[in-house]
Design goal:
By secondary structure, the protein is α/β, with parallel strands linked by helices. The chain has two domains: 39-119 and 222-265, D-Maltodextrin-Binding Protein, domain 2; 121-219, Periplasmic binding protein-like II (D-Maltodextrin-Binding Protein, domain 2), CATH 3.40.190. The protein has helices spanning 2-8, 13-37, 61-72, 84-92, 106-109, 138-143, 158-163, 173-181, 192-202, 233-249, 252-266; strands at 40-45, 76-81, 98-102, 112-114, 120-128, 147-151, 166-170, 187-191, 210-221, 223-227. The longest helix is centred in the first third of the chain and has 25 residues, at 13-37. 35% of the residues are buried.
Length: 281
């Protein structure tokens, strides 16, 4: 009975005021819920310069892009640097929100929700320029039985896996390049930008001696991926994708990319092409 009386007396400007108050309250609740849901995102990452690196500005070009995308949406990011295999496992188990620098595989999609695509890797071989050239299709190269340096826990291109190369696994890419220098492996399977960066920064005396083999085996986009075991994963991915679209549109992403990769290109030796024939030749 009291409720009916109260409604009967609300009319005109009083009803308009009530509607405005209700609308304002709803907006406040939505904003509060959005902010409270994920003010901070924690991501495992690893040493993979210039894309990720604890001593690099912004923790590397990829992590800087990720930070900028989240910052555009008012979200802070904490990066936790670990060896790759452990970084993958901690993110997979939901100890952090996700992981940076992932290549997509169907298996990984069982454990992670992948956000929109980030810059891509050119994945292929580096070799010593004083060793005989290895030419031919992937299958032909594999038949010559070269020993290829790879890294524990990495996903690699399907053409490489299908060719069934002999492999030697190291803990990181720098260790693989050192094995190549010492002649312990014949080839190293690695991202081109990463290898050029490591050679320029860690072993400049090898510039021109360790060379990229054209063409790339595969162009593999990088992603930030979020664990299915973490609450509100869909919301987090949506927030990131919205921020990424915004920094792409306003030129921020292009600016970040240019700062890193113009420097890397300057260190690439002009004589670095030692091309295996495409698979149809």
């Amino acid at each position: 009975m009291v409720n009916h009386v109260a409604v009967a007396h609300i009319g005109g400007s009083g009803m308009k005021t009530l509607r405005n108050c209700t609308l304002a309250l709803c907006v406040f609740i939505v904003q509060l819920t959005s902010v409270a849901a994920k003010p901070l995102v924690t991501l495992t990452t690893t040493e993979y310069p210039p894309y990720m690196g604890q001593e690099l500005p912004g923790y590397g070009v990829l992590n800087q892009i990720i930070s900028a995308a989240f910052a555009q949406q008012g979200v802070k990011v904490e990066f936790i640097f670990l060896p790759w295999a452990r970084a993958l496992e901690e993110a997979k188990s939901g100890q952090t929100d996700g992981i940076t620098g992932m290549w997509y595989t169907a298996e990984r999609a069982q454990w992670f929700k992948f956000a929109n695509q980030l810059p891509a890797n050119q994945v292929g071989f580096f070799r010593r320029n004083d060793r005989p050239e290895l030419t031919g299709s992937m299958a032909t190269l594999a038949e010559k039985r070269p020993l290829v340096g790879i890294v524990h826990g990495y996903a690699y291109p399907e053409p490489f896996k299908a060719a069934k190369f002999r492999t030697e696994a190291a803990w990181d890419d720098e260790a693989n390049l050192q094995l190549l220098v010492r002649g312990k492996v014949d080839l190293v399977l690695i991202d081109k930008g990463l290898a050029l960066y490591l050679i320029a920064k860690k072993m400049p005396e090898q510039t021109g001696r360790l060379v990229w083999v054209e063409p790339a085996i595969e162009i593999m986009p990088l992603y930030v991926a979020f664990s299915h075991k973490v609450k509100d994963v869909d919301q987090t991915v949506e927030v990131f994708n919205t921020g990424l679209a915004a920094i792409t549109a306003d030129g921020t992403l292009k600016k970040i990319m240019g700062k890193y990769f113009q420097q890397a290109a300057a260190h690439e030796p002009a004589s670095a092409s030692t091309s295996p024939a495409p698979s149809n030749q």
